[in-house]
Amino acid sequence: MQLNLLKAKIHRATVTHAELHYEGSCAIDGRLLDISGIREYEMVHIYNINSGHRFSTYAIRGEEGSGVISVNGAAAHKAQPGDLVIICAYGICEEAEAAKYKPTLVYVDRHNQLTHTNHSMPAQAA
């Protein structure tokens, strides 16, 4: 059986731009792409913490170290500058591989600068 698992996420990034008339995509600081392992043109799912909107688009490379998170095209209706978002990419693996698999979790500050990374999330308390 094949499983669709979280490959990588950038947690609580701040949207810096929402460009309605730019060709659709999400520009992400190139350093964050490299650290997370999200590839340019890879499908990403974006979860807007402020509004609850959930949508998918593809990643494009933003300037390294710029902190840019620009939601573009039609997706710009789903986010605005200042919104906090979680950007996720998923991958498919075999069930045997899934037992050992760990995603790359990237955490940023309010300026979208790396604070730390992890490969697991703490268990949620009851």
Q: Helices, strands, pairings?
A:
Elements: E1 2-14, E2 17-19, E3 25-29, H1 30-36, E4 43-48, E5 54-62, E6 69-72, E7 84-94, H2 95-98, E8 104-108, E9 114-118
Parallel strand pairs: 1-8, 2-6, 3-5
Antiparallel strand pairs: 1-7, 3-6, 4-5, 4-7, 8-9
Please report the distance between the alpha carbons of the first and last residues.
Answer: 31 Å
DSSP summary, beta strand count:
9
Number of helices, where a helix is a run of at least 4 consecutive DSSP H or I residues: 2
Query: Spans with pLDDT under 50 lasting ≥5 residues?
Result: none
Order of strands side by side in the largest beta sheet?
A: 2-6-3-5-4-7-1-8-9
DSSP helix fraction: under 10%
What is the ordering of alpha helices and beta strands? EEEHEEEEHEE
Q: Quick one: biggest sheet? A: 9 strands, mixed
Q: Radius of gyration from the CA trace?
A: 14 Å
Spatial shape: globular
Q: Estimate what percentage of residues fall within beta strands.
A: over 45%
Average pLDDT confidence is 96
Structural class: mainly beta
What is the multimeric organization of the chains shown?
single chain
Question: Mind explaining what this structure looks like?
Answer:
With about 130 residues, this protein is mainly beta. It contains two helices and nine strands, in the order E-E-E-H-E-E-E-E-H-E-E. The protein has helices spanning about 30-35, 95-100; strands at about 1-15, 15-20, 25-30, 45-50, 55-60, 70, 85-95, 105-110, 115-120. A nine-stranded mixed sheet has the order 2-6-3-5-4-7-1-8-9. A hairpin with a 5-residue loop joins strand 4 (about 45-50) and strand 5 (about 55-60). The N and C termini lie far apart (about 30 Å).
